[in-house]
Amino acid sequence: MEYNIHNKLFIFYERLDTFMSKVHVFDHPLIQHKLAIMRDKNTGCKEFRELLDEISMLMVYEVTRDLPVEEVEVETPIMTAKFNMLAGKPIGIIPILRAGLGMVDGIMQLIPNAKVGHVGLYRDPETLEPVEYYCKLPEDAEHRELFVLDPMLATGGSAAAAIGFLKKRGCNNIRLVNLIAAPEGIERVQKEHPDVDIYVAALDEKLNDHGYIIPGLGDAGDRLFGTK
Ligand code: PRP
Ligand code: URA
User: Fold this and answer.
1) Cβ(217)–Cβ(184) under 8 Å?
2) Ligand 1 centroid from CA 127, angstroms
3) Which of 27, 43, 106, 194 supports an S-S bond with 56, CB 3.0-4.6 Å?
4) Cβ contacts of residue 108 below 8 Å, gap of 6+?
5) Rounded to whole angstroms, how far apart are CA atoms 135 and 3?
6) How far is the centre of ligand 2, averaged over its atoms, from the C-alpha of 76 (Å)?
């Protein structure tokens, strides 16, 4: 192919397409409205928790849209007929501690049979790299469709590391669910785990010098648990 500005643009858009094809951004008005309230620095702990719960429930509706179904015979009071029910792998949800915990209840309301595994990671404030301190997964995690939960995808270090732990334990069906992502975080996860679909309520502008998402909502863990 001849190398000129049009080809360069073509290659750029082709890469952008690949970059975005596994990223699902929810632009639903209810989600956007609730998220805007969460972003407000004057929103207190209780309301912040409730909103995260509600948004997580709304998001999982879309995250599960492509789950396989199978026809099952059901006897209604009128007759027997075939209807769709969920088939395929059972679901596991994996909150990244701490802030991912805030997304568990909303999701469990819609998928009450999901098993829950926990991955404990904190971000070293100097290096911004994740440090693991806990990991407890369902025994059959590798046979499940796993949803990794964390409200914030900033540098992507924590999510990429959590997904890496899961893969080392033989898990390969993994989706990442975040409330807010920075492009830097999406890029890192996609580079390290190109097989993983990423679901976000908002794709923000960038990171600041301290690795916080701009405009973001501040420190999700602290706002959720009132630790600052
Ligand atoms: C936050 C957030 C993510 C991580 C995102 O957790 O909940 O886990 O930072 O940043 P990254 O994409 O740059 O890794 P934090 O380390 O503050 O721990 P916490 O949830 O216990 O507050
Ligand atoms: N972790 C958070 O809680 N917020 C950010 O903006 C970045 C990392």
Assistant:
1) no
2) 13
3) 106
4) 93, 114, 116
5) 49
6) 50
* Residue 17: strand pairing partners: none
Indicate if the pLDDT at residue 12 is higher than 80. no
DSSP string spanning 122-183?
Answer: EE-TTT--EEEEEEE--TTGGGSEEEEE-SEESSSHHHHHHHHHHHHTT---EEEEEEEE-H
* Type of residue found at 182: A
Specify the amino acid at residue 60. V
Q: DSSP letter string over 93-108? A: EEEEETGGGGGHHHHH
The conformation of residue 211, written as its DSSP 8-state character, comes to S
Question: What was the pLDDT predicted at 182?
Answer: 98
Whole-model pTM: value is: 0.91
| Triad 12, 191, 91: Cα angle to 5° | 120
Nearest CA to ligand 2 atom 3: 219
In whole angstroms, what is the distance from residue 132 CA to residue 121 CA?
4
14-18, 82-86, 89-93, 189-193: the lowest-pLDDT one: 14-18
Is 127 in the active site? yes
pLDDT digits (tens, 9 = 90+) for 117-150: 999 988 888 898 889 999 999 999 999 999 999 9
| Residues 220, 201 contacting (CB under 8 angstroms) | no
